[in-house]
Amino acid sequence: MSDRFDYFVLFGEMRTGSNYLEENINRFDGLHCYGEAFNPHFVGHHNTKELFDMTLAAREADPLRLIERMKKNTKGLPGFRFFHDHDPRVLEACLPDPRCAKVILTRNPLESYVSRKIAAETGQWRLTDAKHRRDAKVRFDADEFETLIAELQDFQLVLQHEMQITGQAGFYIAYEDINDLDVLNGLARYLGCEAPLEELSKKLKKQNPGGLDEKVANFDEMQGALARIDTFGLTRTPNFEPRRGGVVPTYLACAVSPILHMPIKGAALGPVEHWMAALDGVEPDALQRGFNQKTLRQWRRQNKGARSFSVVAHPLERAHRVFCNHILRAEGDGAFTKIRRTLREGYKVPLPEGEPGDDYDTASHRAAFLAWLQFLKANLAGQTGVRIDAAWASQSAVLQGFAELGQPDMVIREDQLDLGLAQLLAQCEIEAPSAPLPQEEAGAMLLSEILDDELEQAAMDAYQRDYLAFGFKRLRNS
């Protein structure tokens, strides 16, 4: 049959025309689609509890075994329909597999939503004879629709991203195209079937012809609600940062207490480390470090009821701390030496050639820091050739990276560190240490000495995502 594929998946959703598309796929010699094989409530089609001698329970125990049985027992190319709420284990297996053909069926989500509401109201999910069609007017629920839109968009992004990173190309087909014989024959050729159809199935009929104004009882209200839904992400903060990993080796655990710090560079690392050591009466060297994914899992198994946390800093204060500790100094961390030189020569950041001397005054510091913030805006937007280092990556991106291996139980603001850590200990029923938290060392100069509206705005321009995600305010207004 196909020398490219062993099986195919038809990605669709309820009321997108997937039943009709499946019926026509099955008319091709050598193609067979087995319905919603991984629907959590049935196997293949409604009220079907078994497929290839596998019951619902057997499929739940080993879903990939059903795919193997499909491939072994189908003369030709087998496949199945898959929706966003089907078995995620199957998605994890088939998405990266280049031997699995991906067919992606889409439809205007509003039309799908209304059609689904009508079907639920009338109880009619398939129509083979127009004289049996049941009509109904349904009410549009804005909250329900927004939730559905978010779920569908997230699922489509997962499909798109996985195929991008694995170098795959799917066959996209719109609801409006499933009645196009040439498009269906093109789909068959994509799947390896060279024998075209002469005509499409006439068995299934469109259930809800007519405009939305004829199907929705509160049509005017729906129009107003849709005007408030930002379908195209007009208010979304653009993000051009690369996805980040969890950086597990940087995690830090107490010597005895079940506390794990998932650090964000640039945010109060020193004080937290000393606090964790003081918690068990040890020196910082006694803290558990150098985790990998295996040892992290072991630590979590051994520390039932453990709590993890991260600390986020105000973006402007964090940017200033990073600037002072990594950029302003001529010596120190060798990883930043080349970046420092590139900033001076390529981006005209007015850094001193060596260590700051007597001529490096407040005005010089403000000018250099402002240029650094302006560089950060371009760097985080992917407009420079300099890497986006974890020391100044947006804190939102760092936390998203943590999520791959488990998000922190608490995200604590640096300016409320005492309160946040006390609450963390209360959850673990651990008595808080009596000693106050040590303070983070100030940079080469105090931020308060140079702070003004232009610096505030430059930081907001660079770290718009963090300001929005964490609700940070301007320092001068707080």
Compose a concise summary of this entry.
By secondary structure, the chain is of the alpha/beta class.
Description:
The protein is of the alpha/beta class and 478 residues long. Helix content is 40%, strand content 9%. The strands form three sheets. A five-stranded parallel sheet has the order 2-5-1-6-7, sandwiched between helices. β3 (50-51) and β4 form a beta hairpin. α13 (362-380) runs parallel beside α16. It is elongated, with a radius of gyration of 29 Å. The termini are far apart. Residues 127-132 have low confidence and may be disordered.
- What is the typical, i.e. mean, pLDDT? 87
Beta-strand fraction estimate: 5-15%
Radius of gyration: 29 Å
Biggest sheet strand order reads: 2-5-1-6-7
What are the main properties of this structure?
478 residues; alpha/beta; four-stranded mixed β-sheet; 11 strands; elongated
What's the topology here?
Elements: E1 7-11, H1 18-25, E2 31-33, E3 50-51, E4 54-55, H2 56-61, H3 63-73, E5 77-82, H4 88-94, E6 100-106, H5 109-122, H6 142-165, E7 171-174, H7 181-190, H8 219-228, E8 252-253, E9 259-261, H9 269-279, H10 293-302, E10 307-312, H11 315-328, H12 337-346, H13 362-380, H14 395-402, E11 410-413, H15 417-428, H16 453-462, H17 464-470
Parallel strand pairs: 1-5, 1-6, 2-5, 6-7, 9-10, 10-11
Antiparallel strand pairs: 3-4, 8-9
